[in-house]
Fold this protein.
Amino acid sequence: MENMEYNGWTNRETWAVNLWITNDYGMSKDLEIYFQELHQDGEEVIETTPEIMRNYAEYLESYVGELLEFENLNRTTYSMLTDIGSLYRVNWREIAEGFAEVLA
Protein backbone atom coordinates (compact mmCIF):
# COMPACT_ATOMS: atom_id res chain seq x y z
CA MET A 1 0.00 0.00 0.00
CA GLU A 2 2.27 2.74 -1.25
CA ASN A 3 1.46 6.41 -1.81
CA MET A 4 -0.93 6.66 1.11
CA GLU A 5 -2.21 10.16 1.55
CA TYR A 6 -3.79 10.21 5.03
CA ASN A 7 -2.78 8.31 8.16
CA GLY A 8 -1.86 5.22 6.15
CA TRP A 9 -5.05 5.27 4.05
CA THR A 10 -5.71 6.28 0.44
CA ASN A 11 -7.33 9.56 1.52
CA ARG A 12 -9.03 11.27 4.43
CA GLU A 13 -12.51 10.01 3.48
CA THR A 14 -11.39 6.37 3.50
CA TRP A 15 -9.66 6.86 6.83
CA ALA A 16 -12.74 8.58 8.32
CA VAL A 17 -15.20 5.88 7.19
CA ASN A 18 -12.93 3.17 8.57
CA LEU A 19 -12.55 5.04 11.84
CA TRP A 20 -16.31 5.47 12.27
CA ILE A 21 -17.28 1.90 11.44
CA THR A 22 -14.53 0.25 13.47
CA ASN A 23 -15.17 2.42 16.53
CA ASP A 24 -18.90 1.71 16.67
CA TYR A 25 -19.66 -1.70 18.18
CA GLY A 26 -22.97 -2.16 16.38
CA MET A 27 -21.62 -1.26 12.96
CA SER A 28 -18.45 -3.30 13.30
CA LYS A 29 -20.44 -6.31 14.57
CA ASP A 30 -22.87 -6.10 11.61
CA LEU A 31 -19.93 -5.95 9.21
CA GLU A 32 -18.14 -8.81 10.96
CA ILE A 33 -21.23 -11.03 10.73
CA TYR A 34 -21.61 -10.36 7.01
CA PHE A 35 -17.90 -11.05 6.44
CA GLN A 36 -18.27 -14.40 8.21
CA GLU A 37 -21.37 -15.23 6.15
CA LEU A 38 -19.38 -14.64 2.95
CA HIS A 39 -16.89 -17.25 4.19
CA GLN A 40 -19.39 -20.00 4.90
CA ASP A 41 -20.54 -22.61 2.43
CA GLY A 42 -22.90 -24.55 4.64
CA GLU A 43 -20.70 -25.78 7.46
CA GLU A 44 -17.47 -25.40 5.51
CA VAL A 45 -15.30 -22.29 5.89
CA ILE A 46 -13.98 -21.09 2.56
CA GLU A 47 -10.91 -19.07 1.69
CA THR A 48 -11.05 -15.34 0.97
CA THR A 49 -11.18 -14.87 -2.78
CA PRO A 50 -11.12 -11.72 -4.96
CA GLU A 51 -14.85 -12.24 -5.52
CA ILE A 52 -15.51 -12.32 -1.76
CA MET A 53 -13.49 -9.13 -1.30
CA ARG A 54 -15.38 -7.41 -4.14
CA ASN A 55 -18.71 -8.46 -2.63
CA TYR A 56 -17.62 -7.29 0.81
CA ALA A 57 -16.45 -3.91 -0.51
CA GLU A 58 -19.80 -3.48 -2.30
CA TYR A 59 -21.64 -4.41 0.90
CA LEU A 60 -19.62 -1.87 2.91
CA GLU A 61 -20.46 0.87 0.43
CA SER A 62 -24.16 -0.03 0.47
CA TYR A 63 -24.24 -0.37 4.28
CA VAL A 64 -22.66 3.03 4.91
CA GLY A 65 -24.63 4.67 2.09
CA GLU A 66 -27.95 3.47 3.52
CA LEU A 67 -26.93 4.47 7.01
CA LEU A 68 -26.19 8.01 5.86
CA GLU A 69 -29.30 8.54 3.73
CA PHE A 70 -31.06 11.78 4.57
CA GLU A 71 -34.12 10.19 6.20
CA ASN A 72 -31.91 8.09 8.52
CA LEU A 73 -29.86 10.95 9.92
CA ASN A 74 -29.77 11.22 13.66
CA ARG A 75 -27.19 13.07 15.72
CA THR A 76 -24.57 10.31 15.37
CA THR A 77 -25.03 9.67 11.66
CA TYR A 78 -25.12 13.41 10.95
CA SER A 79 -21.77 13.76 12.75
CA MET A 80 -20.45 10.80 10.79
CA LEU A 81 -21.55 12.29 7.47
CA THR A 82 -20.11 15.73 8.18
CA ASP A 83 -16.84 14.19 9.39
CA ILE A 84 -16.44 11.94 6.34
CA GLY A 85 -17.43 14.41 3.66
CA SER A 86 -17.72 12.79 0.24
CA LEU A 87 -18.43 9.07 0.03
CA TYR A 88 -17.44 9.29 -3.63
CA ARG A 89 -13.74 9.30 -2.74
CA VAL A 90 -13.87 6.37 -0.30
CA ASN A 91 -11.75 3.36 -1.24
CA TRP A 92 -14.19 0.65 -0.16
CA ARG A 93 -11.87 -2.17 -1.23
CA GLU A 94 -9.15 -0.87 1.07
CA ILE A 95 -11.55 -0.83 4.04
CA ALA A 96 -12.75 -4.36 3.15
CA GLU A 97 -9.16 -5.57 3.05
CA GLY A 98 -8.51 -3.96 6.44
CA PHE A 99 -11.48 -5.81 7.93
CA ALA A 100 -10.34 -9.05 6.30
CA GLU A 101 -6.91 -8.76 7.92
CA VAL A 102 -8.44 -8.28 11.35
CA LEU A 103 -11.14 -10.96 11.00
CA ALA A 104 -9.18 -13.65 9.19
